[in-house]
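On to my pick:
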Amino acid sequence: MALFPAQAAHAGDAGQAAPASEGENRTGDQDVSRDIVVYGRGLQQVGTATSGSQGVVGYADFENRPIARVGELAENVPGLIATQHSGEGKANQYFLRGFNLDHGTDLAGFVDGAPVNMRTHGHGQGYLDLNFLIPELVERIDYTKGPYHAELGDFANAGSLAFTTKSRLAHPMAEVSGGSFGYVRGLVAGSGELAGGTLLGAFEGTRADGPWVLSENLAKFNALLKYSRANWSLGLSAYANHWRSTDQIPERAVASGQIPLNGYIDPNDGGRSGRIALNFNGHFGRTTVAAYAIGSRLRLTSDFTYFLNDPVNGDAFRQVDRRGVFGGSVRHEGGEGALVWRVGGDARWDHIGQVGIFRVANGVVTGTIRNDRVDEVSGGLCGEGEWHVTPALRLVLGLRGDVIGYDVRSDLAANSGKGSAGMVSPKAALAWQVGKGVELYANYGEGFHSNDVRGATITVDPASGAPQGRVGVMAKSRGAELGARIERGRLTASLVGFWLDLASELVFVGDEGVTEPNAATRRFGTELSLFWKPVDGLTIDGSLAYTHARFRGVDADAVFIPNATPLVLAGGVSGRITSRLTATLRLRHFASAPLTEDNLHRSSSTTLVNAGAYWDIGRWRISADMMNLFNARDPDISYWYASRLPGEPAGGVEDRHIHPVEPRQVRATLRYSL
């Protein structure tokens, strides 16, 4: 849990952000809560941040920015890439600091104080699905990188994202969008005063076919109710989605003309998901509390190897996950002057009613590979002290302790069991303001990500019946970072160099129902980010991240980490053409990456350019976005493995399997504000 937002989010406190009244009349201090506070990259971080890689992004930073899918909100974090290898209803694939984070294994996500990552999940450990977010209602995104922050525990090795939704809108609004490939979206949202507070409500619906030969038939619905008072809020959100998937396809099938680049192999891939959440946040003096209750469902059918393992019925499988997640956190700050201390704790219970994987033929379940019920409970305590050694020098020392307990009840008794694990993680930060608007940082921290606890109790491979080794519940990380930040007038920039070791990237392979041990890894690299307003009405931003990622303790010909992208480049320019018209042009590039440990097979690089134009005419707003402006045919993601198509050898064919970026498409939106 993000227990200490004072570090990552101080710059977003109302006292430091410029409120935009947007038509509201201020009549004194009593009406301050009526103002709309606009957060953004222009908020001051020097003097409050404790690392050069953390920051805050506000809605003002991405309001005029083409977004093809909700998960791309995460790309507001410098150096982070969000892709998709399947239907739009799944969690995205995330890449950051040389990690293929799969669907969130080392990237911690939070929305209004509640964790998004799912432990011991049916599709992947740390599953981070952001599809329930409504972009227009995101107020700010606070982000960190590295295991240096005491308030963050599980999954935060590469970084963290904390989304905060709006409490009120300046005006009620209704908007409708339409675009290529059957894309239709509608949104109604508004807020009003109620019983001394503010009630916000929103409903969103999306329908899309996608650019695929197999129509995606996506139907997504989101709803949000949020009641806010001066020092607390209560939110209720609901999400439902179903879709058909075009998963990654073998390149040989495209080269032979069997299918086009946007074609499919198995027409039965797809899924449905749902989520309902209730969350509370309160600020009482110097104490902050949060509580949440979440219900989550996923049913996902996939087929990656076709007829490799079962030449008669095929290799398709279905993953199922049904759970409730309950928890909360508390944080208190004390001290004043030169010494400030913060303590906190969090607790979480994942009550997993079903997590299973099943054999499928022609879209119908034909057998069970593994089916479990799991209870996983965790608790964390953290504390830190911040000492202002001098007015320009701050020293922060922190300590965090985490415990995870679990009870796995498997359909195969030999794979059932109970247990627990714990870890203590020290943190340290030094921030030195060497001049006006210039600060240097040094950080060290240890952290962890949890593994699927089914891997801690397994003894038998559920598919083959062969003996299977167990793995630990926690994989430890150690990292350090040196950084610099400059905030001078219209320019904000940061430069960091980092190192991160992961003792073992042991994971439970949900696609197979077994554990797969990986060697220890080491990553080091550098990141540069820039935000510049050279003149009024013109904004330029950019980021560049380079990472050297390798396995440790392995043979010299097997040191490369698959999908560890070494270079990420992103940036854009946004300009106010007239008082009513704004235009945006954005670039996103991630370089070729190894697909195998020997580096003999690599992915192709991917470069996308998006453009947008936005007209504000009174109460009307007209938006036109063009994604993939130059109609690139690059892969959104690539893998190397063996699969078998009909008529191929029994052992299959090793090949690169790709999911292409979506072709050029246009979307137009009309919004009316009441």
